[in-house]
What does this fold into?
Amino acid sequence: MTSSKDQSSKVRGDIAALLFAAEAKKHGYIVLNETGDNAPFDVVLYHESGKFTKVQIKSTLCASDRGTHEFIVKRGASARAYSKADIDMFACYAFDLDQ
It folds into this structure.
């Protein structure tokens, strides 16, 4: 099995998104996936209450030299910041902590 460090950032992002979707399902959400990389969010959660939540998923391999986990929260190559209209929340996954 390939370690997380050997995988591309795209593959690691896909893994983080799948792990997030599994956790969301465990908590009763319906997970709607974006079919390309064109939206500012990765998934939309739907709850039986009728609420939709746009989620951007970020991941990191390991803690920094300072012992903190750092996540890049800019939009792709453009490095444009997310707006409140783009997403409702971030979901962050640290591979070294498996959480």
Helices lie at 9-26. The CA atoms of residues 25 and 78 lie 32 Å apart. The chain has one domain: 4-94.
